[in-house]
Every structure is written in structure tokens, then in C-alpha cells.
Amino acid sequence: MNDKHVPMSWDHPEVYRYEETIALKIPGYAHLYEMTDRLIAAHLNTTPWNGTDRAAELLIVGAGGGQELVTLGSRHQDWALTGIDPSARMLEIAKARVERAALSPRVSFIHGTVGQLPRGHEFDAATCLLVLHFVRGLSQKKDLLCQIARRLKPGSPFCLASINGEPGTAAFGMQMQAWRSHMLDNGISAQEWERFAASIGRESDPVPSSSVLELLDEAGFIQPIRYFGSYFVEAWYAVKK
């Protein structure tokens, strides 16, 4: 998949490079996951550094790649994690990372979508990191968030991260130039950058931050707090009503 005009497929063999390249592309990538972990831990009244974790079940939406599973699972021995992803290849990456981290007994994998999860079982927390911008259209984005909300206990924490913005504006263009500089300086090839830039609005569907907040509200999440920002990547912490 070397042509910048070839659409991305999450089942293409090139996704095996995801773990290698994503941290080079997003400044503060590891911090996003560490901060997500600490926010959920604080909400669930757990303190992994002094061994007072309480048992909790977490839903990891878009778990392919495995970063959330490894970060959260390694820090909390009493957390059980369910990772769901529609890409079989991305789940293979996640499974391999989980096995290397010796976390397999506490991690379950589901190949599919949130809407395919059994109704009735409610989780203590959920994450959906770097997924929403791949869902096209506000109605589909809202549906995903509603599906997640339905599978959370009232009062549960939810962490959401996505690429947000308004393509075509001057501010968007300036940010893209700055992000390009960052990626090239960190070893991402010009060809890969061009493919990424061409994918905005074609393979991904970023929306303004204000729209993300509206979607969270409409899906039944309250008290949203922006806790991470890196060029267009923003993360929000919210609570299920």
C-alpha cells in the first residue's frame, strides 16, 4: 500500500506496522494512555501504586493494536478487560502484545462491533481511543457512542479520543503543516505523510470539538473534561448518566 491514493484497510497486512509507527505520529502518544488509565483509576477509587485496586470490568472499543489493554492491564491486577474490534488483523496485534505482557487470563477478545455485544451485561468503565474519526457521519458516530453508553453502569467513566477539526479552514491547514513537520522529524516518510494527509475526509471523518461534545451529551454522557490535546488529537473524559 505505497500509493497515497490507495484507501486504507484495517485488514491489510500493512497494519502490522501500526504499533511501530503510531507513537511516532502522535506527540505524547504514551501520555494519552497513561492519563486515560489514571483518570479511570481515580474514578474507580483504585490506586495501583499501593495495591488497593478493586475488581472492575472494562470495555475497550477499538482494541486492535493493544495499547489500552497492555497499559491498563499491566497496572491493575484486578481489572478484567474486554477488547472489541472489527479488524481481525488488528486484534492479532493486540493478542500478541497481551500474550507478551502475560495478561491473557484477564483479557477477552471479541471480533466485531459494540452493537453485537450481548445486551444486559454492564461494564464499570469504557474507552474508545482513536476510533471515532473513522466512523463516517454524525448519526453513525452518535450510534457508536449510544451503543457504548448502553453497556455501561450509571456513573461509569468513559474516555474518548479522536482526531477533531474542520478540514478546509486556515487553522486546519496550519495545524497540518506543523503535524507534517513533527512526523517527518520523527522518521515518518514523506510518502506516508502524503497518504495520511490524503486520507483526511476520505478514510476518516473528523468533526469539530463542539460536535463531539454534542454527541457525548446526546448519547447520555455528562461532565465532559478535555484531558489531552496533540495537534488534532483530543481526548475527553465523561461520565455515563
Automatic annotation (TrEMBL):
It is an enzyme of class 2 (transferase). One of its GO terms (biological process) is methylation. Transmembrane segments: none annotated. Residues 59-155 form the Methyltransferase domain. InterPro entries: Methyltransf_25, SAM-dependent_MTases_sf. CDD domains: AdoMet_MTases. Gene3D superfamilies: Vaccinia Virus protein VP39. Its EC number is 2.1.-.-. GO terms for molecular function: methyltransferase activity. Keywords: Methyltransferase, Transferase. This is Class I SAM-dependent methyltransferase. It comes from Paenibacillus ehimensis.
